[in-house]
Every structure is written in C-alpha cells, then in structure tokens.
C-alpha cells in the first residue's frame, strides 16, 4: 500500500530499515532524510493519526510524536483521541514547532 503522501517523500526508494531502528541505534540518518522533505508534516500527521508505535515518521520518533500529541491536547488544539489531520498549521502556530 502506498501512503497518500509517499510519492513525493524524500524517503521514497530508501532502505526502510533505517526508519525502523533498534533500541540504542541512532535515528539521525532517518531524520536527515526527513529534513527538508516537502511532505514531512503530512507524514507526521498520518503517523499520529494512525498511532504508529514504531519507526521514524515525519522526522520524529514515537516518543517525540507522543510528546507532540500531549502538547496539542494541553494547549487545546486537539481533543484526546481526535484526528490530527488538517490541524498541523494551527498546531505549529500555537506550539511554535
């Protein structure tokens, strides 16, 4: 299954193993690919929406995605359990990320 944003992603054609790292391994190579990707936000939104618990998505680890979700809930941009798709711009304005 090709994700809706995947065709335009920097990671297209990359070895997926670098995005699904083992404990203690560096996430820097995957994050370097994500940096500057024009669909980075869509990828991140998708991973949060579908509660991806493994891998680097939108340049963030699962811990970073969970933290971002908690921050969105804390500032009132997102209700607990609500969809995040389409709130990226508002969230960036509120959280400064």
From TrEMBL:
GO molecular function annotation: 4 iron, 4 sulfur cluster binding; DNA binding; metal ion binding; protein-disulfide reductase [NAD(P)H] activity
GO BP annotations listed: cell redox homeostasis; negative regulation of DNA-templated transcription
Domain 4Fe-4S Wbl-type: 10-67
Pfam family, one: Whib
Swiss-Prot/TrEMBL cofactor(s): [4Fe-4S] cluster
InterPro entries hit by this protein: 4FE4S_WBL, Whib
Keywords of this entry: 4Fe-4S, Disulfide bond, DNA-binding, Iron, Iron-sulfur, Metal-binding, Transcription, Transcription regulation
Family under the similarity heading: Belongs to the WhiB family.
Record-linked HAMAP family: WhiB
Protein name per UniProt: 4Fe-4S Wbl-type domain-containing protein
